[in-house]
Amino acid sequence: MTKFMDVHHGMVGITADQLMEAHKADLAIEGEEGVHFEQAWADPASGTVYCLSEAPSADAVWRVHSRTGHPADEIHPVPLSV
Fold it and tell me: What is the pLDDT of residues 8-64, one digit of tens each?
């Protein structure tokens, strides 16, 4: 499986609790698409949220986020890491 970094825009003012709730919603259904969300980060000032996952495809990541009410604006494969 491939790692993906997805980006959400427009979440200005997101709190730690809201980020955790969104992450928990993804975790609750991730298995239905074969996705595993590893971690999420947010910048409340800019409204940008980043999520790292492992998934069979970018489409699978998009479907999970869409079903939980926060579709990703960008999804990037991350084939290399150190």
Answer: 999 999 999 999 999 999 999 999 999 999 999 999 999 999 999 999 999 999 999
Structure tokens at 26: 């993804």
Instruction: Tell me whether residue 82 is in a domain.
Output: no
Provide the CATH number for the domain around residue 34.
3.30.70.3090
Segments forming the whole domain that contains residue 6? 2-77
Q: Per-residue DSSP letters for the chain? A: -EEEEEEE---TT--HHHHHHHHHHHHHHGGGGT-EEEEEEEETTTTEEEEEEEES-HHHHHHHHHHTT---SEEEE-----
Tokens 């971690």 label which residue?
39
Domain count, the chain: 1
Q: What is the pLDDT of residue 2?
A: 96
